[in-house]
Amino acid sequence: MGERTVPTAEEARRTAAEAWIWGYPLLENYRTMYAQAVAPDDPGSVGFGRFRHHARTFTPADTDVVTPNNDTPYSWAWLDLRAEPWVLSVPATDRYHVLALHDLDTVHVGYVGSRTTGSGAGDHLVAGPGWTGSVPDGVSGVLHAATHLVGVLGRTHLAGPDDLPALREVQEGYRLRPLSAYTDTAAPHPAEEPVWPVWREEETDTVEFLTVLDFLLGFFPVLDTDRELRARLAALGVDGGGEFEPAALAPGLRAALEAGIADGRARLTEAAGALTGSSHLFGTREEVGAEPLRRATGAHVGLYGLPEAEAWYGAWQRDPSGDGPPDGTRHAYTIRFAPGQLPPARFFWSVSLYGLPGRFFTENEIDRYSIGDRTPGLLYDDDGGLTLYLAHRRPTDPKRAANWLPAPADPFTAVVRLYGPDPSVLDGRWTPPPLTVDDGADG
């Protein structure tokens, strides 16, 4: 191989900015995968090819993934497709569920569940890049991944705490098997175990980010849409070989890369701040397109979010009286759904509240982190509308207290989710009502 042509400082800065945005979803994904499938000292790590079911509601102690939800407890799994495909089997159930499979860059491979494959039992083959084997009889469908490492995030409807035993029964019906086990044939030679980079949060905004990205690219064959950027990365030594060494960078080149990473971070922050909905942020490559900033924004505001046809997300991110986010120290707030304007969802809807900057649930005296159409004791307005109260202190009015979603004494954001959204949501005829300051809501 010939020597690489070293890019100029300007070229390196531009490449680093684009690579940081393009690679941001890969690193956010690796952060979760490392904890759940790789980390030797993490009690929640179960390796590859096994489900880890979350058969309970989330609390502030759960920090595996940002913006968690309590509508559909998760079933996590990770697949290494290098040696052979895997088969995902699901039981027959009328309960709403979706198992979304995603590539390393968090783009979805496909979906198995109520909306896409129905309520019947089925066996679904998950094949990695370049697999050309025969599909065995009995397989309901084939999902073709673009990367050799794939995540599975199942969501199964939970009606409330009393529904947990029935939820667990459905979750335990989700099954993963290598193709050779499914067909009862000899297993191929296993793929070599990688030397997994230790996840260090503090390195994601430094040139060390490129070290982890270089490792992950070894599991991510080049796509046509990424070919030009991947070539520029390769010119920097980030080619998927796992040998990128930041310490060997010349000082000027290192400074240019650091400046580019800062540029990328600023672009993502700006894009996330301007966001008003989840349109085209999540889905398959056909659903989200080839724009890296869109994928990075989705990973930033709602890692592993579902496409709009499955679940629609909206957010209240700005205090109506100022430029910053809502803040439980400064104000109490209301969200009022007018008569006939309740969230139109085929399955159900909810509003969840997250503390900032982490976007996790926060401690509160009634252990309520979400509120929605399945919340026991919810009280509707006399005209048929519904008013939710977002405040740090518990309202003294009993009706307000029944509809209280506790806020921290800090900045926060609120997210609305509609499962099976009505066409009026998808075409913009229905939009969430505004967040309103109502300092009478806490007293």
What oligomeric state do these chains adopt? single chain
Mean pLDDT: 93
Q: Per DSSP, what share of the residues sits in E-state strands of 2 or more residues?
A: 15-25%
Strand order of the largest sheet: 1-2-8-4-5
Shape: globular
How far apart, in Å, are the first and last alpha carbons?
73 Å
Helix proportion: 10-25%
Structural class: alpha+beta
Number of strands: 17
* Most strands sheet: 5 strands, antiparallel
**What is the H/E order?**
HEEEEEEEEHEHHHHHHEEEEEHEEHE
Short description:
This protein is an alpha+beta fold and 443 residues long. It has helices at 9-38, 164-171, 179-183, 208-217, 227-235, 251-273, 285-288, 292-302, 398-402, 423-426, and strands spanning 52-53, 74-80, 86-90, 97-102, 108-113, 122-127, 141-144, 149-156, 175-178, 311-316, 333-337, 345-355, 370-372, 386-391, 404-406, 412-421, 435-437. It contains ten helices and 17 strands.
